[in-house]
Design a protein that fits this description.
It is a single chain. The chain is an all-alpha fold and 70 residues long. It has one domain. Helix 1 runs antiparallel to helix 2.
């Protein structure tokens, strides 16, 4: 399959920009707990994710002769 992944690249670039801004902001302040919370929030929002839902599932039964024919 040849699919476009531009959305993931853009999301990772934005994530890196946000992380740099957080580190720059908290460079001045010494609040590690607050900085980690900000980092966790940004990662949850911008980390590329692929999700799927099974709409219609089923069970397929194969005969033994089909499996041994290979």
């Amino acid at each position: 399959m040849n699919q476009q992944h531009d959305w993931a690249v853009e999301s990772l670039q934005l994530l890196q920009e946000e992380m740099a801004m957080i580190h720059h902001f908290y460079e001045i302040e010494d609040n590690k707990k607050e900085m980690q919370k900000e980092i966790d929030d940004v990662e949850a929002r911008l980390q590329p994710q692929i999700t799927y839902d099974v709409i219609s599932g089923g069970i397929i039964y194969l005969q033994e002769s089909f499996l041994s024919s290979n």
